[in-house]
Amino acid sequence: MIDLSPKIQEALNNQIANEGFASNFYLALAYWCDDQALEGCKKFFLRQAEEERMHMMKIYEYMSESGVHPKTSAIPQVPIEYSNIQEAFKKVFDQERSVTQSIHNLLSLAMEENDYNTQQFLQWYVDEQREEEAVIRTILDRIRIIGDGAQSLYYIDKEIEKINMTVIASASNQNGE
Ligand code: OFO
Q1: Residue nearest to atom 1 of ligand 1 (CA)
Q2: Is 51 within the bounds of a domain?
Q3: Does residue 56 line the site of ligand 1, with CB under 6 A?
Q4: Residue 44 Cα distances to 31, 87, 113, angstroms
Q5: Which of 45, 78, 87, 163 could pair with 30 in a Cys bridge, judged by C-beta atoms 3.0 to 4.6 Å apart?
Q6: What are the tens digits of pLDDT across the range 108-151?
Q7: Higher pLDDT, 124 or 170
Q8: Per-residue pLDDT for 1 more than 90?
Q9: pLDDT for 12-25, tens place per residue?
Q10: Confidence (pLDDT) at 150
Q11: CATH code of the domain in which 73 resides
């Protein structure tokens, strides 16, 4: 059994809430896209919502394997309205940056506490955040290139659908499927 200090337990519980917030954030975005008839974007955000839930579950499992009962902390209300898809993706980038920061803070705490197991556990999240930020940066670049002409929403939606398929394919390769 692994010993998790009270500080680490509290920080992991907070991260469970952060990942839960991220999952709800993407779920709300998926249904905002549904209202806008952006089917490709909806699929992208639904997959992201599932991923974030999986990130949350991994922390539950880690705490439970360490003999600690994880808390199911309250998750604040997520935004449900956006002015346009460009603004939505900018908010997604800010959201991912804030999760990256919380993972880095957690890792710094695990280092201060000499908690080698938690440091190793968190490395997966560090890599995951780097990859997620890279995908969102690519999307923001494509949106900028497509511009805001008459057909732009159509092309943005198609582009996000393509990026979604690429993310799914690379995840299956990594899992050896
Ligand atoms: Fe949990 O991966 Fe981003 O937020």
Answers
A1: 52
A2: yes
A3: no
A4: 11, 16, 38
A5: 45
A6: 999 999 999 999 999 999 999 999 999 999 999 999 999 988 89
A7: 124
A8: no
A9: 999 999 999 999 99
A10: 80
A11: 1.20.1260.10
Cβ(52) to ligand 1 under 6 A?
A: yes
Count of domains forming the chain: 1
Q: What are phi and psi of 150, to 5 degrees?
A: -55, -40
State whether the beta carbon of 115 lies less than 6 angstroms from ligand 1: no
> Would you list the DSSP string of 9-32?
HHHHHHHHHHHHHHHHHHHHHHHH
d(CA 133, CA 145) in angstroms, rounded, equals 18
Give the number of other Cβ atoms within 10 Å of residue 153's Cβ.
Answer: 18
Which of 24, 26, 127, 129 best tests ligand 1's pocket when mutated (most atoms within 8 Å of CB)?
Answer: 129
Model-level pTM greater than 0.90? yes
CA–centroid distance, 23 to ligand 1, in Å, is: 8
CA of 94 to the centre of ligand 1 (A): 12
* Residue 1 belongs to a domain: no
- Report the C-alpha gap between 132 and 48 in whole angstroms: 10
- Residue (of 96, 68, 74) closest to 12 by Cα position: 68
- Residue at 17 is within a domain: yes
Asked if residues 73 and 14 have their Cβ atoms less than 8 Å apart, the reply is: yes
